[in-house]
Amino acid sequence: MHRITVYIFLLMVAFGFSMPLQAQDKKTITAEFNNTPFDSVIRKASAINQSPIYFPPGKLDSIKVTIQVKDMPLSQFIEQILQNTAYHFFTDKSGAIFIVEKKYSIQTNLPSDFFETSQPVKETEDNTNTETKNNSTNKQPIDAAANKLYEIGAATNEPLSGTATLVGYVRDIRNGEGLAGAAVYLEGTSSGVITDAAGYYSLTIPKGRHVLQISSTGMKATRREIILRSNGSLTIELKEDIPTLKTVTVVAERNSNVRRMQMGIERISIKTIKQVPVLLGEPDVLRVLLTLPGVTSVGEASTGFNVRGGSSDQNLILFDEATVYNPSHVFGFFSAFNPDAIKNAELYKSSIPERFGGRLSSVLDITTREGNSKKWSGTGGIGLLTSKFTIEGPLVKEKTTLLASGRTTYSNWLLKQLPSEYNNSQASFYDLNLRINHSFNSKNTLSVTAYTSKDGFRLNNDTTYTYSNRNLVMKWKHVFNNKLYMNLTGGMDHYDYNVTG
Known about the structure:
Blueprint: H1 2-26, E1 28-37, H2 38-49, E2 53-54, E3 64-73, H3 74-81, E4 87-91, E5 97-101, H4 125-138, H5 144-147, E6 149-152, E7 163-172, E8 183-186, E9 192-194, E10 200-206, E11 208-215, E12 222-228, E13 232-233, E14 236-238, E15 265-269, H6 270-275, H7 285-289, E16 295-297, E17 305-307, E18 315-319, E19 322-323, E20 328-329, E21 334-335, E22 342-348, E23 362-368, E24 377-382, E25 386-396, E26 400-409, H8 412-415, E27 426-441, E28 444-458, E29 464-481, E30 484-500
Parallel strand pairs: 2-5, 6-12, 7-13, 7-14, 18-23
Antiparallel strand pairs: 1-3, 4-5, 7-10, 8-9, 8-11, 11-12, 15-22, 16-17, 18-19, 20-21, 22-23, 24-25, 25-26, 26-27, 27-28, 28-29, 29-30
C-alpha cells in the first residue's frame, strides 16, 4: 500500500510540472501600449496570462514601450520589448519568467552531477596553506559604487549608434574637493582624459555599455560601469589610498608612459609639500621647488629661486591667477603662502602656455583649496616663529563653501638674542587668505579669492622697511555644453613698498 501511494505522488508531481509547460506555449497576449513604462507593461502581461514575471526593480524604469500585438505568444512578446536593451529572459519549468541583464544567465535545471558526492580530500599541511592563501587573496573590499550600473540618458527602443559626451567631476569623498590631474579612461582602449584644476572632465565615447577606470595619485583607483545613451554627466568620488606595504613589486606603468602633452611642467601637491623637511617647523612651497631639476636658490636662507639660469625677476608667480610680486616674509626665511590653504602648485620651466603672457624664465601657478563642502573643520599650529589657523566648511551644504586662514609671527624674541648692535631690530609679518565658492547649478560656479599680507622690519633703529601684497580675484565658470566651457577671471593686484629713514 505504501508503494502505491509513492507512485501516485510521483505521477501528480510529474503531471503538475508538465501542465505549465504545455500552457506556456498557448499563452498569448492582445494589447496596445503607447509610451508605457516597462513595469506597467509587465504587470499587465502577467495579469492577463496569470504568469509570474520577475525583473529587477528600478533598473528598467527608463524604458518606455510602444507596441500593438494580437494573439502574440507571451515569450515572443517579452522578447520583442526587450530588443535593443541590455536585458534578456529565461523561463523555468513552472512557467515563471525571469528578466535579467545579458551578462547574467539563469540555469533553470540542476546540473546532472549536482547531487554527486565529491571525493574526500586528504588534509595535509600543503592543502591547508593553499586554501588559506586563496581565501585571503579572494577577500576584497566590496565597493558598491563600482559594482553599480549607471544608466545615462533616456532608454529607447532604437539601437545605440554614434557617440556621446560624458562630463562631470572627480572629487575627494572626504571633503568634496575636485581632484586635479585624475585620469578617466575607457577600459581596454586608449580613450581617456585628465581632469583640470577643478577636477572637471569631458570624455566623448561611442554610445553603449562601457567600463570607466578612474585613478588619481594618493587615491584608490575605482571603476564605473555605465550604459551611455546620450550626453550626460557623472560625478565620481574617490577614497584616500593608505596602503599597507608587505611586498613591493615594481611593474611597468604602461598607462602612465605618456602623462601629458605639455612639456617642461612639474606638478606639486600639498601632500608632497608637507613631506619635505621644513625650516623652523613651517612647510614651504618655494623651498620644495628647490628640490626640482633645473631650479636653484638665489642665496642661502632665501625663498627666491632661479630656473635654468634665469634671474628671480623673470619668474611669474600666480596665486589663484593673481600676481604676487614679492613672495617672501622675514628677509626671505618664509614664503608668503600659507601651506594649509594650498591645493597644488604647477611650475612651468619651458614651453610656457600663451595664457600666462611673456615670462623669460618660468611660471609658478599656485591653486588654493575650495574648502570642505560636507562638514566644518579647522586646523592650527604653533611654531618657533609663527602661528597659523585655518577654518573651512559649507555655508550652504554642497553649494557654498568657505575657507579662511591666517598666519602671523612673533620673531622679535629671536632678534633680541643677536649681538647688542642688532638687538633693537624688529621684524613682523602676517598674511590672510579667504576663498568662497558657490555653485548656482551644474553649469555655473563662482569663486572669490582674497589675499593680503604685510611685512615690516627694522635693523637697529636705523631704517624701517615695509611692503604689502593685496589681491582680489573673481572667477566664473560656465559650461555651454559637454564639449565647451568657459573660465572668466577678473581681479586686482596691488603691491606697496616703503622705506623710512
